[in-house]
Amino acid sequence: MTTRTLPNIILTGTPGTGKTTHALLLAERCPELKHLSINDIVKDQSCHEGWDEEYQSWIVDEDKLLDAIEDQVKQGGWIIDWHACDLFPKSWVDLVVVLRAGTEVLFDRLTKRNYPEVKLQENLDSEIMDVLIQEARDSYDDEIVVELQSGDADELEANVERIEAWLEQWKKDNQN
Ligand code: ADP
C-alpha cells in the first residue's frame, strides 16, 4: 500500500514511440496528473556530465537526476516521460507503460528528427530487440508493466483511454 493519493506512471519506450505525445494528451484529459519531462529536467537542472557529440544527447547523471525529482515524485500524480525506466526506485512507481512502434513507423518518425545515423540505427535496434520492455519487466513487478502499441492516432486514443480507466480504478483501490 502506498501513501500517495495519486499514482505515478512511467511512460517509457524507444525514442519516437510516442511518450511525449501520450503524456501531453493524458495530462490534458487528467488534469490531476502532471507531465514530468525527464529530458527537460536533465537539461534545465544540469543533471548531466556533458554533451555527447556523436549521439547529440546529454550524458545523464542519474544520481543527480533522482535527487532533483525525488521530493516532487514522492508526492504522486506524475507522468514520468523517459526512454529508460530502470533508474526509478520501485517504491516510486505504480504503473509502467512501455510504448511500441513498428520499425517502418519508427524509422519515419526518427528520420524527421534528423537523428545522426548511429543514433537512428541504435534506436531501431533497441526497438527490434525489445530492450525497453525487457528493462521494464526486469525492474518492476509484472502486474504493473503494460505494453501498448503506438502506431497511429487510434492506438494513441485507445491507450490514453485505457490509462484513464486504470487511474480511476487505482483511486478507488487506494482511497484513504
Ligand atoms: P517520444 O516522446 O517517445 O520520443 P513523441 O511523442 O515525440 O515520441 O512522438 C514522435 C513523433 O511521432 C511525433 O511527431 C508524434 O506526433 C508521432 N507519434 C507518436 N505516437 C503516435 C501515434 N500513436 N500516432 C500517430 N503519431 C504518433
UniProtKB/TrEMBL annotation:
Localisation: Cytoplasm; Nucleus
Reactions accelerated catalytically: ATP + H2O = ADP + phosphate + H(+); AMP + ATP = 2 ADP
Molecular function GO labels: AMP kinase activity; ATP binding; ATP hydrolysis activity
Positions with a binding annotation for ATP: 16, 18-21, 113
Signal peptide: none
Region span, NMPbind: 37-60
E.C. numbers: 2.7.4.3
Classification via Gene3D superfamilies: P-loop containing nucleotide triphosphate hydrolases
Taxonomy, superkingdom: Eukaryota
Pfam families: AAA_18
UniProt keywords, alphabetically: ATP-binding, Cytoplasm, Kinase, Nucleotide-binding, Nucleus, Ribosome biogenesis, rRNA processing, Transferase
Purpose: Broad-specificity nucleoside monophosphate (NMP) kinase that catalyzes the reversible transfer of the terminal phosphate group between nucleoside triphosphates and monophosphates. Has also ATPase activity. Involved in the late cytoplasmic maturation steps of the 40S ribosomal particles, specifically 18S rRNA maturation. While NMP activity is not required for ribosome maturation, ATPase activity is. Associates transiently with small ribosomal subunit protein uS11. ATP hydrolysis breaks the interaction with uS11.
Family: Belongs to the adenylate kinase family. AK6 subfamily.
Subunit structure: Interacts with small ribosomal subunit protein uS11. Not a structural component of 43S pre-ribosomes, but transiently interacts with them by binding to uS11.
Protein name per its UniProtKB record: Adenylate kinase isoenzyme 6 homolog
Species: Triangularia setosa
